[in-house]
Write a structure and sequence with these properties.
The chain has 25 helices and 13 strands. About 45% of the residues lie in helices and about 10% in strands. The protein is of the alpha+beta class. The protein has three domains: about 240 residues, no CATH class; about 180 residues, no CATH class; about 170 residues, no CATH class.
Length: about 600
Amino acid sequence: MEARNRKLSDWYHKVQSGEIKLPRFQRHEAWDRQRICSLTGTILRNLPLGITLVLDVGDEEKFISRYLETAPETNVKVHEHLLDGQQRLTAMWRVLHNNYERESYYVYVTEFDEYDADEEREDMTVCCQNRWEVQGKDGRRPLWCDVPAQCLKRGLIPTHLLRPEDMQSEINAWIEDAVGPKKPTSVVLEELQAFFDFKQRVIARIQELRAVLANYNLPFLSLPAKTEKSTALDVFINMNTNSKPLTQYDIIVAEVENVMGKSLHDLEAQLNERCPRVARYAELSDLVLTTSALLQGYLPNQRGAWDMDKKKLVENWPLLERCVAEMADFLNAQGIPDAERLPTNAVLAPIAALYATVAKSGDKRGQDELMLKKYMWYAFFTDRYENAAAGHAYADYIALQRVMTGVPTDDGKIVTEADVPIFRDRKLADLDQLMQADWPKRKTILGRAILAVLCRLGAIDFATGQQLTADNVANRHYHHLYPDGLLKEANIHSFLALNCSLISDRTNLTIGRKDPVVYLKDRYKWATSAIVHERLESHLIPVKELANGGYEGRSEADKNKKLSDDFQQFIRRRGELVLAAVQKLVAGHQLSAKELFEQ
């Protein structure tokens, strides 16, 4: 490795010509405005920055590469890969073109500031002005940003005037527009001399800023072209983790490119385009790694992703893509609309990986998917995945795979459903546990599991009559059936999963302290009593127990006692209905709210 010096103007021209590019596995642009301003200010004050790392390319690129953000795509021969420093160089390239979508950057020069309404700034501060477009009108706001005279009046010199290239005509035009309003109309010698002196100071200051920037030294370490890919990758990882740690996926992406010369980002983008429903349930990167690890017989976690064969990950991509797509279809059919309503993501990789084993069609497919249903609902209504989720998921996957294929263990034992750890070692939650389950928005497994049963039944909206689907779930809100305000007055905990339903309007903001059914009657104009029951029962809401009320006119103690008793009866009855639904689900039966109420 060799340390070298390089002027910023040279870095600029290498980006401009396309001689320097980024390995495809590098993160995309991530710096915020504050860091961009700080970087530019550091350079203009000629203060040191951290060192940059490049890899000489030689005759052939070792990694799939891409251009820096907004840099021209020249298709010339690449000389260097930028391994570390892309945020700095990208920020400088874009600041020097002022081509950010929502902001413009300026250097503040105190001696030119004649505007009293701005905040106080130190000389040579680099500042950012937010930009926006007004619908139906041309141009960006605020308009003064595009008017040189208004900028100069505020002491602001646009950073795009500092580009280290031949642009004198552009600079001259800006200066003429900027100082033009100050040009005297008279021929008084003193006034003309003051004007030309002012103009010369503006010219000199811009030239000074341009010289500082162009000659700024940004040193770098250079890895020779003969460096092995694995070595370059190790250096890249070690240097990057000193600032913002790489994610597991970043590193796996790098390893895949090292082994296969293919971009995992591109494969993931194609997967998302072909199967957009998959991304409803998890980050594609995480799902790809955990599922691929299981398919290769490794734990569905970071360790498994490290240990698995990266070449096989790419070679098995068509199978992986089919598996995760079928997993998403399965979850949707089971009434799980998205990740926010998923009780535990520990089931995703096992279900996806098992679709490599599930029969393609016929009775066997029905049997296999029945096993998946039982597995999923057991995962939701037991504590199997509260701890050590990856190890438990691996053990369950291996056992379920053997049940589906009939392949015996190494000692010749045929594995049956009773041998699957989640069925063998865990019991479904009982009524008392359901009654204590926490509010489903708080991401507890059992709380979300109860909500999942209600989603499975369709959860007809109180007002619109629409069934809950993946397409409209984003419009639903978590609603207290027994109002929080009413229960709070009696010191009764209201945030229970069995006191929750998903409906489309923000009733919690206006619900007040009315009795539950009184509130519902006031708010919704239902056509018939049958419609009332149909919509409420689709949420497994026992209407009789919800209709308790009559708290007005009672003493405080009497009211609180009755409210507590009524609420407990409601929670118990609804818990019984949910428990009955769960027992049907794990047995593979279809769910019907009407049948559950008739039991």
